[in-house]
Write a structure and sequence with these properties.
The structure holds 2 protein chains of 2 kinds. By secondary structure, chain A is of the alpha+beta class. In chain A, 34% of the residues lie in helices and 14% in strands. The relative contact order of chain A is 0.12. The chains are: A alpha+beta, B mainly alpha.
Chain lengths: 250, 114
């Protein structure tokens, strides 16, 4: 009896929204179109769950990339009501709108519908050498692990929260026009390793970023930091990295 | 030249130009605005060497800063090896041409060619 009441309460809390999904297949479409679906949602329903509901009940051909459903894998980045967000980390109820529009991320080539290619992001990420560079190793006999003080850890720890979802690159205005720009994700990761006291590859990385399409093309719009779902502040990382270039930091 | 060196010059020229243009504006305030732009007044300014020297420095600073800014904008608008080379060299040539043209005016006044 108690369970029935609870279910009835849940049913009564259910509301409806219109979910507009961008449809585009570069192989045969010339422009993006939108398909609308009426979706029932609860206050805890995420945008990803709504999209998966569409796939399950209305149109299984909607292309979307997702995996963990808990803002860890960084797969489900998309533009939700005009802002880059993770679909699994965005509740419909928090959008305060009866119409939810989902589109593929900006500044990424579209594979189909909401799925985009990540090659450029991974290439630039790889370009900045996102690993510790040093000649010795802590995995050898008679040596200790590389010690680090809490203060040294504090220098870069927030930047290691990056999940490579690409939302920062999607929000970046420079990325929109400069196809060779390294992008906020890679620049923030470059700072993460440059600021790591165990790393010895600072000069290598700064040389890579000191290019006509490198760190200097950031105009400090700050939109990258605004959209990061993990609280990383790439705009700050870029400014701190510039400090090394200008000789304010060593 | 490395981009960091170019950008250091870019920031440096901006700061120096702000300081010198402020001096230039203050000098203009020593007389009325319309009076300041009269032919004789302008010629007199050019003939006063320390002031003419400052105007020359402002011209150089603003040309370097302005054309590098234009180069940056153009590099962000479009990419490609040939295009980028053309933009970079084009901006250097335009910068030199503007400095040469401005310097020519100061030199002509000081050598009595006006």
């Amino acid at each position: 009896m108690a369970q029935t009441t609870s279910l009835a309460e849940n049913m009564s809390s259910s509301q409806s929204i219109t979910l507009r999904i961008a449809r585009y297949n570069p192989e045969h479409d010339s422009t993006k179109t939108f398909m609308e679906f009426q979706i029932q949602y609860e206050k805890w329903t995420t945008v990803l769950e709504a999209i998966l509901d569409v796939k399950k009940h209305f149109d299984h051909s909607v292309a979307v990339r997702y995996s963990c459903r808990q803002a860890t894998c960084g797969s489900c980045g998309m533009i939700i009501n005009g802002k880059p967000r993770l679909a699994c980390f965005t509740k419909i109820s928090e959008l305060n709108s009866n119409i939810i529009t989902v589109e593929p991320m900006n500044n990424f080539p579209i594979i189909r519908d909401l799925a985009v290619k990540f090659e450029r992001l991974f290439d630039t990420h790889h370009k900045v050498k996102p690993y510790l560079i040093r000649d010795d190793t802590e995995i050898s006999t008679n040596t200790k692990e590389f010690l680090q003080s809490p203060e040294e850890l504090e220098q870069y720890i927030q930047f290691s929260n990056c999940i490579k979802c690409g939302l920062c690159n999607s929000a970046c205005p420079t990325m929109a026009t400069d196809s060779s720009f390294v992008g906020p994700q890679a620049l923030a990761q470059a700072y993460r390793y440059v600021a790591d006291s165990r790393d010895k590859g600072k000069d290598d990385r700064l040389k890579i970023l000191d290019d006509s399409h490198g760190i200097w093309r950031c105009h400090f719009a700050g939109s990258c930091s605004q959209v990061c779902p993990k609280g990383v502040d790439p705009a700050m990382g870029i400014q701190l990295l510039r400090g090394y270039m200008l000789g304010f930091r060593s | 030249m490395r981009e960091s060196i170019i950008m250091k010059i870019h920031y440096g020229t901006a700061l120096a130009a702000v300081a010198l243009v402020a001096v230039h504006i203050l000098m203009r305030l020593t007389q009325g605005f319309s009076e300041s732009l009269e032919y004789d007044s302008v010629i007199a300014n050019y003939k006063f060497l320390p002031y003419a020297g400052m105007l020359e420095i402002i011209l150089i600073l603003l040309s370097i800063h302005g054309f590098n800014g234009l180069r940056v904008i153009l590099l962000e608008l479009k990419q490609g090896k040939t295009y980028e080379k053309a933009v970079s060299y084009g901006c250097v040539v335009a910068m030199i041409a503007l400095i040469a043209y401005g310097s020519r005016t100061i030199i002509m006044v000081n050598t009595g060619m006006t």
